Amino acid sequence: MKTIAITIISALLFSAGSPIKNCKCKNTSLSGRVKIVENHADFRVKVVENHSDLEVKEVNYNSKFCGEWRFVSNHPDFTVKLVDTHEDFKIKFLK
After folding, report:
1. Structurally, how many domains does the chain consist of?
2. pLDDT tens-digit profile of 35-85?
3. Does residue 32 lie in a domain region?
4. Model's pTM, two decimal places?
5. 18-26, Cβ contacts within 8 angstroms, sequence gap of 24 or more
6. Is residue 6 in some structural domain?
């Protein structure tokens, strides 16, 4: 019984630390058309190899699947600024 309680508490603490819930951050779906910007981004994103909050697959079509991003110049669903520190969340690019 004690082991089960510890496992449940650990899972809740781990999931509580992620800024992404149901593939959304700040109530914005993290799929679709994305523009990389330097100023006034919706999200500050750090690219990592390990311990990411979201795995991102670059696609060349419009998608509503979680983590499928089409990089665009115009009419994005959301914007990101790539940063090294003070990120909103961390991503790992899938190959």
Report:
1. 1
2. 999 999 999 999 999 999 999 999 999 999 999 999 999 999 999 999 999
3. yes
4. 0.80
5. 18/53, 18/89, 19/53, 19/88, 19/89, 20/53, 20/54, 20/89, 23/54, 23/66, 23/67, 25/88, 25/89, 26/88
6. no
